[in-house]
Amino acid sequence: MSMRNLPMGRVGRALRCCLLVACGLQIVPVAPVQAAQVDNIRLWAAPDHARLVFDLSAHAEANVFSLDNPRRLVIDLDQSGLDTDLASLELEGSAITAVRSGRRDGGGLRVVLDLSREVEPRHFTLPPNEQYGHRLVVDMEYPGESAVQNPIDPIESMIREQEIAANRHRSGAAEADAPRVDPEVVAQQPAAPHPRRDIIIAIDAGHGGEDPGAIGPSGTREKDVVLEIARRLQRLVEDTEGFRAVMIRDGDYYIGLRQRTRIAREQKADFFVSIHADAFNSPRPNGSSVYALSQRGATSETAQWLAASENQADLIGGVDGNLSLNDKDEVLRGVLLDLTMTATLNDSLAIGGQVLDQLGRVNRLHKSRVEQAGFMVLKSPDIPSLLIETGFISNPDEERRLRDSGHQQRMSESIFEGIRAHFRSNPPPASLLAWQRDNQRTPSGNEYRIQPGDTLSQIAARHGVPVAQLKQANELNGDVIRVGQVLRIPRS
Questions:
Q1: Which of 87, 151, 221, 371 is the most exposed, having the fewest neighbouring CB atoms within 10 Å of its CB?
Q2: Ranges in the chain, pLDDT < 50
C-alpha cells in the first residue's frame, strides 16, 4: 500500500516513525498509564456507619455514587487496578451484603457494593503517614442510627440538660441566647417528683479500626487492650445501682477525636473517661498516669509528648480535615467556654485524684499527681473528663501485665472505685445517689426536706428568709426543686 492510500491519521504516524528511524531512535510502544493499584481493602463496622478503606500504591481520583433498585454504592477509581482478593473481606455487622469489581469502559477500576439499607456516602483521600501509604476512605453513614448502642432516654436527657444549664448559670457562662425565666414564676412552681436518675459515665476506648494505637515489643496493640479494659469498666458501672455506662467505641472501628467528645455531650454524660496504654520513645517508662485538660502548658515533658501523640490520631485513623470541621462553630464555642468553666476542670482534677489513688493500689504510678496537657478528647466544657494511661505498652514487663485478664480487671475496678467515690460525695442534684443521700439522713436544725406540694416561695416564707437568699444558699438558679431534696436554710 502506498503512502497516499493511507488514512491521514495513519499517514501522520507513518511519517513520525520514518523520522524516528532516520534519526536512529528506537520505537517503544507506550503502555496506558495506570495511576494506582488497590493493594488491600479494609472494612470497619460501627453502629451508625461503616468505613471502607482502600490502600493504594499511589494517589487515585475517585467517584462515588449510589444506585437504587437494588441499593448499591459504586466506587470508580481512575486508571487503577485491583491487586487483592475481595472475597476475603469480612462483611458481618455492616450494611454491605456483597462486593464485586470490574474494569470500566475506558479504563479504571469499578467496585460495586450491594447494600441492605440506605446509606449516606462520603469519601476522601489521605496522604501517606508513618503507618500507611495513600488511602481512599469511603464512609457510609446510616441515617437515623445512634453512634452508641443504647442511647440515653429522652426524659433523662431533658433532666440532664436542665442540670447543665444550671451549672452554666452558676459559672457565669450561660449562653447569650438562653431563655430567660421569671424567677417569681419559678419560685411558685410546686416541687417536682425526684427523678432519681442514673449518673452517666462515658467510657472511651482509645484508637480503634485502622488506628491500632501504640504497639508493644511483642506486638500487643493498644486498641485491643484498652477496649477490653473499657468493657470490663462498662460491666462494673452497669452492675452498680445509680450508674449507667455509655460506650463511645464498642468495637474495632475508629471515631474521630471531636466525635468522641460530641457523643459524650449528646448522651449528656456526667463524666468522660478515655482509656489508653500508650508508648514512649523509650522502653524504660512504666506505670499508670491520670491526665486532665490543661488550658496552658503541659505539667511534664511526658505529658506534652503524649498529648501531641494522641492529638495526631486522626491522621492515622482517617479523618478528612475538610469534612470533619462541620462542627467548627460548636468546637470554637466549646473551647471559649472552657476558659470560664473552671468548675468542670476542678471536678476533673478532684476525680482524677481519687482515680490515681486507687490505681496506685494495683500498679506503679508513673507520676504521683494528676498531670495536665492539651488532649483534644478532654475539651468538653460541661463534662469533667480524664485520660487514663493504664500503662506504657512500650515497656516489655508492662505490656505483659496489660495482656493479663486479672490485671485488666483490677485496673478497671480501680478506675471505677475512684469515679464512684467522687460521685458518692458529690452526687448530681437529680440523681438517685443525691436522693439516697438526702433521704438517709435526718435534716439538721437549719435544713428542710422538700415535701410534695411545696414551692420555693412557701418554703422561704415559712422560714422567714427572702427567696433570693434561699436560692443563693443552695446554689439554685431557678431550676425546679425536687421532692425529698434537702435545702439549707440561711440565717436571716
A1: 87
A2: 1-32, 174-178, 321-328, 332, 335-336, 338-340
